[in-house]
């Protein structure tokens, strides 16, 4: 009976906590990986990519002129977005094979959505919405 009362009390006490919780996990600020990530972000305005766009050619390969033009357009859209940084694409980096599938029908664009984990959750939706109207030669995923 006492445990039931404690449980009910804890539920009432914690009711308003939800909006104050973070979407992400916890990174210990003294861990070397956290220090390195913070340094990259604050001093060099860089960080690990947290957004990947897989561009698929509907016809031909990612090196076909119409698909390459679409890849460049997506890259430029991401670069122009104020919520996105460090955009790197197959086309922008000189068509390196590491960013293309073996069959040549898909290529990768990597970028970083800026902000905290909570901001990422909101901003990622806006970035994705901007990529819904694309040239018919490609399909992003």
Question: What features would you highlight for this structure?
Answer:
141 residues, Alpha-Beta Plaits, 4 strands
Question: Which SSEs are present, and which pair or pack?
Answer:
Elements: H1 2-13, H2 32-44, E1 51-57, H3 65-80, E2 84-89, E3 106-113, H4 117-130, E4 138-140
Antiparallel strand pairs: 1-3, 1-4, 2-3
Describe the structure.
- The protein has a domain at 46-141: Alpha-Beta Plaits, CATH 3.30.70.
- The protein is built from four helices and four strands.
- It is globular and about 60 Å long.
- With 141 residues, it is of the alpha+beta class.
- Strands 2-3-1-4 form a four-stranded antiparallel β-sheet.
- The model has no long low-confidence stretch (mean pLDDT 81).
Summarize the structure.
This protein is of the alpha+beta class. The chain has helices spanning 2-13, 32-44, 65-80, 117-130, and strands at 51-57, 84-89, 106-113, 138-140. It is globular and about 60 Å long.
Count of individual helical segments: 4
Q: Can you tell me the residue ranges where pLDDT is under 50 for at least 5 consecutive residues?
A: none
CATH topology of the domain at 46-141: Alpha-Beta Plaits
* Strand residues, percent: 15-25%
Shape assignment: globular
Mean pLDDT figure: 81
Biggest sheet, open or closed, and with what strands and sense? 4 strands, antiparallel
**CATH architecture classification of the domain at 46-141:** 2-Layer Sandwich
How many β-strand runs? 4
CATH class designation of the domain at 46-141? Alpha Beta
Strand order of the largest sheet: 2-3-1-4
Distance between the termini: 53 Å
SSE series: HHEHEEHE
- Portion of residues in helices? 25-40%
The CATH H-level superfamily of the domain at 46-141 is Multidrug efflux transporter AcrB pore domain like
């Amino acid at each position: 009976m006492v445990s039931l009362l404690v449980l009910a009390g804890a539920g009432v006490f914690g009711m308003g906590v939800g909006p104050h919780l973070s979407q992400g996990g916890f990174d210990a600020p003294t861990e070397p990986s956290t220090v390195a990530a913070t340094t990259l972000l604050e001093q060099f305005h860089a960080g690990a990519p947290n957004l990947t766009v897989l561009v698929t050619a509907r016809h031909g390969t990612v090196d076909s002129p119409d698909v390459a033009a679409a890849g460049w357009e997506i890259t430029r859209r991401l670069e122009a977005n104020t919520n996105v940084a460090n955009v790197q694409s197959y086309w922008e980096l000189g068509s390196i094979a590491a960013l293309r599938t073996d069959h040549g029908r898909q290529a990768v664009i990597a970028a970083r959505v800026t902000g905290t984990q909570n901001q990422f959750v909101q901003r990622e939706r806006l970035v994705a919405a901007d990529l819904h109207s694309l040239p018919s030669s490609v399909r992003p995923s």
